[in-house]
Design a protein that fits this description.
The protein has 605 residues and is an alpha+beta fold. It is built from 14 helices and 30 strands.
Length: 605
């Protein structure tokens, strides 16, 4: 049976193996989804086993394929039915009309648009709510298919209104310049917000086949090989379990209830160990290709990396620049708010909730002030208008009290972008800078993210409050960059001292305190106190063996997404979809920090 127990370093054949599942998907895809069903182009009464989207035992080599799929907008069935399918005039029951160009590389099926948000270009009388992100899949033949070959690839349903992702799959038959309709299904998802519920979706989409750009094929293959070679070595969780004493990793992924767990992984000695990604229709067959809507994990990525990189280029004084100097039309108090204050969620703005600060509830008034009107506003101008209308100054000074506000990080992104334009010209863009100057050097070639929707289809400002769709490999590399104090491959990408201060929680702000009254360092705080700095939550953990307390830098996002950095240089990644609960649902167990304890047992720190 094909498995994923190899790493990406080495020859081409192991690369294909890395895109295959470890267990549970043996058997012919033709048994789960016969060729007759694909050729008929009619969706079944439910999604099929995920085994239909991966070569199983006995699969044969397939001929090369290259072409553009012009996929027509198509209805999606869902279970349960979507209660609120219409969002801002766009329909979540429609698969979007998109074009995706594909080519083979051995038995890999590589989308030209891999890692990109592909927006709808051909719609019917209604517009789809969705865009898609295609990822690398496989091609193969099966003896039962009558001379047709099979192609399958991972496909994420995403959108440009929020950071939500449905992890899905697509497959079709091809032979002699002809293709079947596509069978599509979306069997797992990040935490829902606007749509307000969990569901699976499936359907059949007609596609017309157009010629590929043959002149670009060799360069594209070379680029894909380079991308795959740059991925971290990866092994399945079962391999790690075999390496360590029994019980060492028990509870990893907890205390999150397994019902809400999408995927969990651990980075150890530079290798990414990943768990099986469960879905109602069997394990997701391409776990390393999954892209997640990580929500506020973006707060630990976009703005901090941008500020630390700009501090390395121009100097640490970048953190002292004022938001109001680079975002026009705001309340005058923003002229006293430093970039660092916004990154610390201590702008002194919000205008909702109570004025009680000692002790302080850092979530006080978080979703007040007409939050959804701001969240769903299309353009940067619309979002700024909502901020000006609904968020007002608190009586305290910037830098003294933390109040969690997504708007702070959105404005910080606008301010950093404004500063970058002042230094490099009007075409400069903060997210494009990060991709070219930070992500690509560490081996991340694609970084799809939500942007504002501007008139005429113009590309808007990236959301630095939430909006990134990373893979496990992406998250691991970003965390490793922080652990390496901003250095990679002999190059200092981030300011070393400021990065060291960040991961050590130096000058972090106490979430439940008021620094205008008492300024407390983490090492002197009450044991239960948590701290915050530049998008990172610093979670206290006391080792039972030594009694020593650690503050672990943690990226955290809605849905129980967490990426945690450890003193033993390990990194835990937990992706969840905990949202839209029912009475009696248990999100976390009462067993405490199980993931942290597992990492501590594995390599005591």
């Amino acid at each position: 049976m094909l498995n994923a127990r190899r790493n990406y370093r080495g020859v081409f054949a192991p690369l294909a193996l890395m895109l295959s599942p470890v267990v549970s998907l043996a058997g012919a895809a033709a048994a789960a989804l016969p060729a007759s069903a694909l050729l008929a182009g009619r969706p079944g009464p439910s999604p099929v086993s995920n085994a239909a989207f991966i070569p199983g035992a006995g699969a044969l080599a397939a001929p090369a394929f290259a072409g553009v799929l012009r996929i027509r907008q198509s209805p999606l069935r869902s279970a349960p039915a979507i209660d609120k399918p219409m969002q801002d005039g766009r329909d979540a029951r429609l698969f979007p009309g998109v074009s995706i160009e594909l080519f083979t590389m051995g038995d890999l099926l590589v989308p030209v648009q891999r890692g990109e948000m592909v927006h709808e270009t051909e719609s019917g009388s209604a517009i789809s709510f969705w865009s898609v992100i295609p990822q690398i899949g496989r091609v193969w033949r099966e003896s039962a298919d009558g001379g047709w070959s099979r192609a399958a690839f991972p496909l994420m349903l995403v959108n440009d209104t929020e950071n939500h992702a449905h992890q899905g799959l697509a497959t079709f038959l091809y032979r002699n310049g002809k293709i079947s309709d596509l069978a599509i299904q979306f069997v797992q998802q990040s935490a829902p917000y606007l749509l307000g519920q969990h569901f699976v979706a499936w359907g059949s989409a007609h596609a017309d086949l157009a010629p590929a750009d043959s002149g670009a094929l060799e360069d594209r293959r070379a680029a894909a090989r380079k991308e795959l070679a740059a991925r971290l070595p990866a092994m399945h969780w079962a391999d790690l379990v075999k390496m360590v004493p029994p019980g060492t990793l028990d509870g990893f992924g907890g205390p999150l209830d397994p019902k809400w767990l999408l995927e969990a992984a651990l980075v150890r000695d530079g290798t990414l160990y990943y768990q099986e990604a469960a879905t109602p229709y069997g394990p997701y067959p391409y776990p390393l290709e999954m892209r997640f809507g990580v929500r506020s994990v973006m707060k630990s990525i976009g703005a901090p990396l941008a500020l630390l990189h700009l501090a390395e280029i121009y100097g640490p004084w970048v953190l002292t620049l004022k938001v109001g100097d680079y975002v026009r039309g705001l309340d005058p108090k923003w002229n006293r708010v430093r970039f660092l204050d916004a990154a610390n969620m201590s702008t002194g703005f919000g205008g909702t909730g109570t004025l009680k600060t000692n002790p302080n509830n850092f979530l006080d008034g978080y979703l007040d002030a007409n939050y959804d009107a701001w969240y769903t506003a299309h353009s940067q101008a619309d979002k700024l208008a909502q901020i000006n209308a609904n968020l007002h100054p608190y009586p305290w000074e910037p830098g003294t009290v933390m109040r969690y506000r997504d708007q702070d990080f959105y404005l910080l992104g606008a301010a950093i972008d404004g500063f970058l334009k002042s230094m490099r010209g009007p075409s400069a863009d903060v997210w494009n800078m990060l991709i070219a100057e930070v992500f690509e050097p560490i081996g991340i070639q694609h970084a799809p993210a939500v942007r504002t929707r501007e008139a005429g289809g113009r590309e808007g400002l990236v959301w630095l409050n939430a909006g990134y769709y990373p893979t496990l490999d992406d998250l691991a590399k970003i965390a490793l960059l922080y652990q390496d104090r901003g250095a990679h491959g002999g190059h200092q990408l981030l300011n070393r001292q400021l990065t060291s201060d960040l991961v050590a929680a130096r000058d972090a702000i106490q979430r439940d305190g008021d620094f205008s009254v008492t300024r407390v360092a983490p090492e002197n705080a009450a044991p239960e106190s948590e701290f915050y700095k530049m998008g990172f939550h610093f979670v206290p953990y006391v080792r039972s063996a030594s009694g020593r307390r650690y503050y672990l830098p943690t990226m955290s996002g809605f849905g129980e997404n967490e990426v945690t950095l450890y003193p033993n240089r390990m990194i835990s990644i937990v992706m969840g979809n905990a949202a839209q609960f029912h009475p009696g649902d248990q999100i976390k167990s009462d067993k405490g920090p199980q993931t942290i304890r597992a990492v501590d047992r594995l390599a005591p720190f």
